[in-house]
Amino acid sequence: MFAGSSRLHRMYAAGTAAAAVLIGVTAVVLFQPSLSAENVAENPDEAVEREEIDGMVWVPGGAYQRGSNEAYPEEGPRHEVSVDGFWMDKHPVTNRQYAAFVEATDYVTVAEKKPEAALFPGAAEEDLVPGSVVFVQPEQDVNLRGHVGQWWQWVPGAYWRAPEGPGSSIADRMDHPVVHVAYEDAKAYADWAGKKLPTEAQWERAARGGLEGKMYVWGDEMMPDDQHLANTWQGKFPVENAVEDGHAGTSPVMSFPANGYGLYDMAGNVWEWTSDWFHPQSYRDAAGEHNPVGPAREESFSPSDPGRAVRAMRGGSYLCATSYCLRFRPSARSATTPDTATTHLGFRCIKDPEE
């Protein structure tokens, strides 16, 4: 159905280290929304008078319509929820910021550690090495309904400082979002910074930027005035990327306009962890809730990876295409196991006003 995923897809069921995960993509997509004739792109930079402190902007509390009835099934039904106001990082945590955290704490990420054999039954000892999951663009057409291992590869030695594996570097990407961070890596940073990760409800409230019921964080039109407003994939995924938005991979944060609350990169660039456990039907009984949270861990479920608890992630990434993974919309949801890290998954933090 959509992004299940567990770390390395459990080494292709512990058969090989050349593993891939179902992350932020769906094996059966081709979702093309019908846009109304009333599509008018709002100017997010003029939506509200913003308040900003220490790189965080204020997201006002209130009720809003969460989800969608026109997109993927897990996004519905659309329903009203409300949240209290909170502060949110105005952009995803960058390599520069994460480096400061690691320098201060000597923290070691999940991708830098040897995988536990108990979590990968049957895996050969030589396959249990530190590494992470990397997008590798195929040289020829692939079956989009086939296994995502056609474009995702398990790369020994890949981690946040070496996003594509040994020999790669973030030296010229210090202001790009940090990637290859598992859930516990993101939470560790948030704890150190005196912050926390947002719930799905908080994240979507922030992403909408005050625009009610719009398809994108900037309005209903994908490219108002023929302008790209997010870092996404243009072309035939995953074999042809036209790079019309100027970025083949991650982009420096704040490369595209902010939304109505002054938040950048709420669409595309990198997926972002939330604090919620995930279930595709968790919205069915959520109408009217105040500060809703996801299901309990034991109730978490992903059709692509039944039997494993998964955390929700939001926002889409530079690998989302309109013809394959149209999930750079504020209502779009996906999930993966907490120990998964990839080249297109990052995070940002929030803070309650009393903290």
Task: Give your account of this protein's structure.
By secondary structure, the protein is of the alpha+beta class. A 4-stranded antiparallel sheet has the order 1-2-5-12. It contains 4 helices and 12 strands. β1 and β2 form a beta hairpin.
Low-pLDDT stretches are: 1-5, 10-48
Query: Hey, roughly how much beta strand do the residues contain?
Result: 5-15%
The radius of gyration over CA amounts to: 19 Å
Topology as a string of helices (H) and strands (E): HEEEEEHEEHHEEEEE
Could you estimate the helical fraction of the residues in percent?
10-25%
Distance between the termini: 39 Å
Q: Which key terms come to mind for this protein?
A:
disordered N terminus; alpha+beta; 355 residues; four-stranded mixed sheet; 4 helices; four-stranded antiparallel sheet; globular
Architecture blueprint of SSEs:
Blueprint: H1 9-14, E1 52-53, E2 56-59, E3 62-66, E4 79-83, E5 86-89, H2 95-105, E6 131-135, E7 152-156, H3 183-192, H4 200-208, E8 271-277, E9 311-314, E10 334-336, E11 345-346, E12 350-351
Parallel strand pairs: 8-11
Antiparallel strand pairs: 1-2, 2-5, 3-4, 5-12, 6-7, 8-9, 9-10
